[in-house]
Design a protein that fits this description.
Elements (H helix, E strand, L loop, with lengths): L1 H21 L8 H29 L24 H17 L4 H26 L3 H7 L21 H17 L8 H4 L5 E3 L7 H8 L5 E5 H6 L1 H5 L3 E3 L6 H12 L4 E3 L18
Parallel strand pairs: 1-4, 2-3, 2-4
Helix pairs in contact: 1-3, 2-3, 3-4, 6-8
């Protein structure tokens, strides 16, 4: 039911309201205004979509009152402002207002924008009552407009790299169309608590298949030499482990990752098993 109510909220925001505001508009603005408005619209859509994906990957929820996150999201745009999704919606409406050529509609957009601010305040009130730590997060960041010096530092244990989200989508599409696979026992992957995935490391496709199987942010552990050579692994927040040494830095990163509720993917054997039989667990 909560998911249905959330879908209704999003439909009202992104479908019903724009149709009511701009249905029948002439869309005959001068070229310069059209270009500027188009940039605003594209940027606002990117901001809102990215914000929604960050919330979904981090919490399995959506940025709505009905199905909002049950944990504080401090990743992506949420490192700079508390309501980037709703800010994107307001910018989208203003962009459409200037693009449509009927500038009286911008006045109506201002009213809807004010209502969106009230809606955001309601979200904050409900979230503060439901989510531990949100009040502290609220004190750190501005409402919708970024301010210099007011941001949360990027930390791969608490922030999802945008490259991870892009790679996840690409991998899902490639496997879906080229090598359709069925994921069994998905209940554990839907659980929002942290867990450790112990890979039976047989091929180079083990990691991509895990990308395909879940919509969660997962940090993998890999040998440092591969992370150093392949920059993509660093972008995907892979934790490098130095072999034949007690790598305390890697251990701290793994513990920090688990404490933040992020799953960890690791191959205990530290090598690939080409025949499927377990290898000895490496003490490295």
């Amino acid at each position: 039911m909560k998911l249905i109510m959330s879908a209704i909220e999003l439909a009202i925001m992104w479908i019903v309201i724009p149709i009511l505001l701009f249905g029948g508009a002439p869309f005959s603005s001068p070229v310069a205004i059209t270009v500027i408005a188009s940039v605003i619209i594209a940027g606002s859509l990117l901001l809102s979509v990215y914000s929604a994906l960050v919330v979904f990957y981090w919490s399995g929820r959506l940025p709505t009152t009905s199905f909002g996150p049950e944990t504080t999201v401090q990743s992506g745009p949420y490192r700079f402002v508390r309501h980037p999704f709703n800010a994107g919606f307001i910018l989208f409406l203003f962009g459409m207002g200037f693009l449509c050529g009927d500038y009286w509609r911008v006045l109506y957009v201002s009213v809807i924008g004010a209502l969106a601010v009230i809606y955001s305040l309601l979200q904050e009130y409900l979230t503060s009552k439901r989510v531990t730590g949100y009040s502290e997060y609220k004190e750190k960041l501005p409402f919708m407009i970024p301010k210099a010096g007011k941001q949360i530092p990027f930390d791969k244990s608490t922030s999802i790299p945008w490259q991870f989200i892009v790679a996840s989508f690409v991998v899902k599409l490639v496997i879906l169309f080229i090598l359709p696979s069925k994921v069994k026992n998905t209940k554990v992957l839907r659980d929002r608590r942290p867990f450790v995935i112990a890979l039976a490391h047989q091929t180079h496709f083990d990691g991509p298949l895990i990308f395909y199987s879940t919509w969660r942010y997962i940090r993998f552990v890999a040998t440092a030499i591969y992370v150093d050579r392949l920059r993509l692994l660093g972008w995907l927040a892979v934790i490098p482990v130095r072999r034949y040494a007690v790598d305390t830095s890697a251990i701290r990163q793994m513990l920090s990752t688990i404490r933040q509720g992020v799953p960890l993917g690791i191959a205990p054997e530290a090598a690939r098993s080409w025949d499927g039989r377990p290898l000895h667990t490496k003490k490295e």
